[in-house]
Amino acid sequence: MTLLDWPIFGIHISCPICRRQSPALMLTEAYLCPSHGVFEADPVTGSLVHLDTERCWYPWQGNWYQQHRNPEGLKIEVFQVLDHLHYQGFRAVKLTLARRYEALVQPHLEFQSDWWRQIYYAKPRLYGLPLEFSPVIDADSRWQVINFEFSTEFGPPAYAYPFCTRWDGGFGKST
Fold it and tell me: Distance between CA atoms of 116 and 130, rounded to whole angstroms?
C-alpha cells in the first residue's frame, strides 16, 4: 500500500460531527464514521462532504469547520459557542463573522430604530452582539475556513443572548 491508495486526509480522520476516529476506505476518497456514515474528501477543494446531508467541512489547524449555506445552521453554531463561553464564565462582547457570510446574514442584522440607539450602537448587531466582518481575505487566510470568532471578557453576560440559555430544571417547580 502506498500513500496514493488513501484519501487526502490520511488513513483516518476525526469525524467532524462526533469527533470519533473514522477510518479511510482504501482506493476511494472516502471515510466511514460508525455513527454518521460516509464522508467524501475532495482533493481539488480540500473539503470533506457528508454524503447523507451534503454538509461541507474544511480543516484548519486540526479542527473541522462547517461551511454554512443557510442562516439557521450558522445561528445554531454561534449559540452553541455562546453557551459554552457562558458556562466557562466568559461573556462575548463582539462577534467577528467571516466576510463570506455577509450576504447570508444581511436580512437578520439588527439595526436600532430610534436615532439615539443608532448613534450609541453605531455598528449593526447580530444575535444581540455587536458585529464586525472579517478583513478582506487573502489566499492563505484563516477566514477562508473559520466562520466566526468572539471577543470575550470574564464575567456573566451583560444581557441575555436570545435563544441561548440552558434549562436548569428549576422552572415550573413548586416548592
Answer: 16
3-class secondary structure for the chain?
CCHHHCCCCCCEEECCCCCCEEEEECCCCEEEECCCEEEEEECCCCEEEECCCCCEEEEECCEEEEECCCHHHHHHHHHHHHHHHHHCCEEEEEEEECHHHHHHHHHHCECCCCHHHHHHCCCCEECCEEEEECCCCCCCCHHHCCCEEEEEEECCCCCCCCCCCCCCCCCCCCC
pLDDT in tens, 48-57: 999 999 999 9
Query: Is the pTM here over 0.90, yes or no?
Result: no
